[in-house]
Amino acid sequence: MTTQRIAEPTQLRRIPRTIVRFGVSFVVIAIIVGAFLLPYLWMVSSAFKNQTAIFDDLNPLSWKVFLPVGGTIDNFVALFEKGIGLALLNSLIVAFIQVGGTLVVCTLAAYALTRISFKGRGVVFAVILATFMLPAEALVVPMYGVISGLNLQDTLLAVALPWVSSVFGLFLLKQAFEEIPMELDEAARLDGAGHFRVFWSIILPNVRTSLATLCLVTFLFSWNAFLWPLTVVQSPQNQVVQVAIAQSVSAGELPNWGLTFAGAAVATVPLILLFLFAQRFFVQGLASSGLK
Amino acid sequence: MHSGPIDSTPLAVRDLGGSSTLPPRRRSQSKIGKGALPALAFLTPFLLLLLVFQYIPLAVMARSSVLDYSLFNPDNATFVGAANFIRIFTDAETIQSLLITFAFILGVLILVVPASFALAVFLNGKLPARALVRTMIFLPVVTSSVVVATLWTFLLNETGLINSVLATVGIPSAGFLTDTTQALPAIIVMTVWQQVGLATVLFLGGLQAVPAELSEAAHMDGAGPLRRTLSITLPLLSRTTLFIVVVMTVFALQAFAPAYIMTGGAPQGTTNLIIYHIYKTAFILQQPGYASAMALVVLAFAIIISLIQMRLLRTRWNY
């Protein structure tokens, strides 16, 4: 009797609870899919439709809105005729300069700050740390002045160069370098290896994961940057892809939806594929980039 | 001078050690002394770029903020003293822009913090397709602000997807971006959509550091799941929460693409975010001096936020 009394209510409560939990999970997942996945599906499918088809599927709302039904590649053809290929290439060049530069400059600096003891290390670190507080977007006006002073305005180098000395990159690497035991390089130093040798053959091979993270996150930042390239580049042949898209939709004009969707898809889908393949690095890197 | 006697003792000891002929020790000491040269070689590229692209612009900005000139003719500048700063707090458009930016930041925070916390708790539990959900909410984080703004321009359009969905349930179409009362909230919602994935990942990191025994003990004492979340998990995550608040504030402060792409600051300046206002003032109205003064005010605000952040990172919180 007593055991039954206790057992019954728990048994009764347990079954609905799992159902409730399953139901709640289902609803939440449905909301997340609706809010986060469907807009992307709409973007990509609409890129394959002409203006009339896009509006036909929207009014009244049809399931076709999320699928490239009756697809056409006209938008993409027009996009490449308008020169999006060059903009993509420019973005790629800028990203390579920025990633390569960041890797070189930040690994060297991180080595000095973690492996060489010298007078004034604290001061140097403070000087670097202080810039950590400067919001990049607020510095655009004087930075444009500096770039003009260097006679670099309207070049791809000018788009990448100011971000190469990345404090975020330095911090990320400094942390990774600090995890390598000092005994390793001390042994190499005793064997007569110089600093550069230690840096190249002992430190760098041990921080491959952090280097990959830095590469991917820097690529993402570079590829997605907007205000600075908008400011520093004037001639159309040096335009990066984000600015090209922004100009096809900017306020006031009546945009060609299909064409703009195609541009957005071309700029985004490669990056999303990269993200899906290397998700771990992106999530870790971006979570720690909150530090900047 | 007054520190002389304190310093002299270790020096004397070191001298004794040096003169007592210990070759290896001497060598290592000289290497430390020599450290400055290789260190300089390794640090020069970074420091040089930092000087040119951070410190010099900072100096240029401070100088410009007391000048009146145009970018076409920068040599023809007149010194105006504090006039640019006074103008910030007397110019109705700038005051509105600062207030709008403040409301924008506040709106983003009020929505993104609870939403990401709920999502993190949800993702921390046993859940089918957990990794898939995390991937989906992280998609906007890796999407550029330009594409997000473009996509949302069409989503929020009077004939766009959101109005189309609303129409199927019988709600009349809304103007969103063209309505003075809806434009800013619409941009806030978009920014929350864009950033909630990052905040969720940060909360998840915090949640995984919370010891499970605490929650289990409360469970034994009869606390329900909601009670356990509110009274145990949330207080333990106060540091993570503050950190997320800071990161999101700095992000929202720098928002530019929504105003540039979606609204142009309209309707009636209700989405005229401060970075867009600065950009317009400098490059379209050709008043870089005034723009620099405004940027310095933004900078001061960002520095205060960052100091809070560093304080947070440095202090160890004990429970």
Q: Low-confidence stretches of chain B at least 5 residues in length (pLDDT < 50)?
A: 1-32
Order of helices and strands of chain B: HHHEEHHHHHHHHHHHH
Q: Which percent range fits the helix content of chain B? A: over 70%
| Residue share in β-strands of chain B | under 5%
In total, the number of domains of chain A comes to 2
Alpha-carbon distance between the termini of chain A? 64 Å
* Main sheet summary of chain A: none
Number of strands of chain B: 2
Identify the CATH architecture of the largest domain in chain B.
Orthogonal Bundle
Strand order of the biggest β-sheet of chain B = 1-2
CATH first level of the largest domain in chain A:
Mainly Alpha
Can you identify the CATH superfamily of the largest domain in chain A? Answer: MetI-like
Average pLDDT reading of chain B:
83
**CATH level-3 fold name of the largest domain in chain A:** MetI-like fold
Number of separate domains of chain B: 2
What portion of residues of chain A is helical?
A: over 70%
Might you state the CATH topology name of the largest domain in chain B?
MetI-like fold
Spell the H/E element sequence of chain A: HHHHHHHHHHHHHHH
Task: Please give the oligomerization state of what you see.
Answer: heterodimer
Question: What is the end-to-end distance of chain B?
Answer: 44 Å
Structure explained in plain terms:
The complex is a heterodimer of chains A (292) and B (319). Chain A has helices spanning 2-47, 51-58, 74-81, 84-115, 121-131, 140-149, 156-160, 167-178, 182-190, 195-206, 208-224, 227-232, 241-249, 257-277, 279-289. Chain A has 2 domains: 2-72, no CATH class; 77-289, MetI-like fold. Chain A has 15 helices and no strands. In chain A, α8 packs antiparallel against α11 (208-224) and α9 (182-190) runs antiparallel to α10. The N and C termini of chain A lie far apart (64 Å). Chain A is mostly helical and 292 residues long. Chain B is mainly alpha-helical. Chain B folds into 2 domains: 4-85, no CATH class; 91-314, MetI-like fold, CATH 1.10.3720. Helices cover 74% and strands 3% of the residues of chain B. Chain B has a two-stranded antiparallel ribbon with strand order 1-2. The interface between A and B is large, with 93 and 90 residues.
